[in-house]
Design brief:
With 246 residues, this protein is α/β, with parallel strands linked by helices. It contains 8 helices and 7 strands. Strands 3-2-1-4-5-7-6 form a 7-stranded mixed beta sheet, with helices on both faces. α5 links the parallel β4 and β5. The longest helix has 24 residues. The chain is globular.
């Protein structure tokens, strides 16, 4: 089954975009805690690795798609003091928490968060030097359309860096990973979050999202060039990098 067909609420007939918005509004108060707990804090290292991949390309104007509570946007603003970072997300609950974090960090004016759909972004063509997305593309209603929209708002020669959870291929690691993601995480999610379905949707969407070469092929199909990937932490997370032709 394609990832676009994996929905947060299986009995719901609404489009995936609407379901994802509701899910993240529901889990927003617990989101940061669950991220740290699920990954044992390693998610911070993954984000740093992703940000490092922007250092050698122009990054004055950065767009962070599916910005959530703003962790990646904040890290990029701190890493690149001359950059302007814009973050967009479907969920008002997530963005509300992100705006408070940005204010607490003293980054008002350098990081701006707003509500927008990644499939129809409110920006002119060629508006950004770089685009990032952390743990978000598997939630897209149409992944190929999402990449084409990124290509549209990216400047020629610009770069996208996509951080996404993935399924390990190792015969040793995979059974442990499957047990952890399909049993432990949903149980912990039900204990911490009021949304009993959200953390069951997580492993289902990870299993269905295109990975490694397949994801790079999708980026090339959307119009990007030189797509590549970096596997992290036994294959539990993957960074995808692609540039827009000049």
């Amino acid at each position: 089954m394609q990832v676009e067909q994996i929905n947060p609420y299986t009995s719901d007939t609404r489009q995936k975009t609407d379901q994802v918005r509701e899910m993240f509004d529901s889990i927003a108060p617990a989101y940061d805690f669950m991220n740290r707990a699920m990954t044992f804090g390693i998610d911070r290292l993954w984000r740093r690795r992703a940000v490092g991949l922007l250092a050698d390309v122009p990054h004055g104007d950065i767009l962070d798609i599916a910005t959530g509570t703003g962790d990646l946007a904040i890290l990029m603003a701190r890493s690149f003091p001359q950059s302007r970072v814009t973050g967009i997300d479907l969920s008002e609950g997530m963005v509300g928490i992100g705006r408070k974090k940005i204010n607490d960090c003293g980054l008002d004016g350098r990081v701006t968060l707003g509500i927008a759909d990644c499939l129809a972004m409110p920006y002119p063509d060629a508006s950004f030097d770089c685009i990032t997305c952390a743990y978000g593309v598997r939630n897209f209603q149409d992944l190929l359309a999402g990449y084409r929209e990124m290509l549209r708002v990216l400047r020629p020669g610009g770069r996208i860096v996509i951080l996404e959870l993935s399924t390990p291929s190792s015969a040793i690691v995979r059974p442990l990973y499957e047990f952890y993601t399909r049993a432990i995480i949903p149980f912990a999610g039900r204990m911490v979050s009021k949304d009993t379905r959200a953390y069951s949707y997580l492993p289902e969407s990870i299993a269905a999202v295109p990975q490694c070469g397949e994801m790079c092929g999708l980026m090339i199909e959307a119009g990007f060039a030189e797509a590549s990937f970096i596997s992290l932490t036994f294959g539990t997370c993957t960074i995808y990098i692609a540039d827009k032709p000049r």
